[in-house]
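User: Can you help me understand a structure? I only have the sequence.
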Amino acid sequence: MEFFKIILFFQEIKSQISRFNFSKTKNTIKTHKINLKQNAFLKF
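Assistant: Let's start by predicting it. Here is the structure, written out as tokens:
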């Protein structure tokens, strides 16, 4: 039973990490889009 709890615990940690990485990636894409807009604006 303890072993099962440990496995669940690790799966929870893994899902937390992947969620964190996903939100980080989304923010990176967002800032990248903003930079593209600013660069396009500076060219004109």
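Now, to help you interpret it: Residues 1-42 form one domain. The chain has one domain: 1-42. Let me know which part you'd like to focus on.
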